[in-house]
Amino acid sequence: MLHTVAHPSRLSLLYEVCPLGFLIEKAGGAATDGMMPVLDIEVKGYQQKVNFIAGSKEDVKYVSEELNADEGNASGKKGSYANLLEIEGKYAE
User: Fold this and answer.
1) Helix, strand or coil for residue 34?
2) CATH number at residue 43
3) For 68-90, how does the pLDDT look when each residue is reduced to its tens digit (9 = 90+)?
4) Which of 43, 44, 55, 60 could anchor a disulfide with 30, C-beta 3.0 to 4.6 Å?
5) b/e per residue, 26-45, with b = 16+ CB within 10 A?
């Protein structure tokens, strides 16, 4: 699932991401929002939405590093995941 400004693929933190992230981490995998582990995210409300990346620890680490690369990431485009979220915030306002 790819998160873009045109297609914000976000899941509910409290009802979808936390339970699934807990199971994935107990099974030896990793679950993140691209910046930090999903189980470390502070729940601010039941409607809070977050991005979700899950899988083996190595795969999640690779994807997170590529999304957060300043330039020359796997897609071949310059930019970072933080920049994408910043752009999305401008459109949401």
Assistant:
1) coil
2) 3.40.190.80
3) 776 655 554 555 566 666 665 65
4) 60
5) eeebbbbbbbeebeebeeee
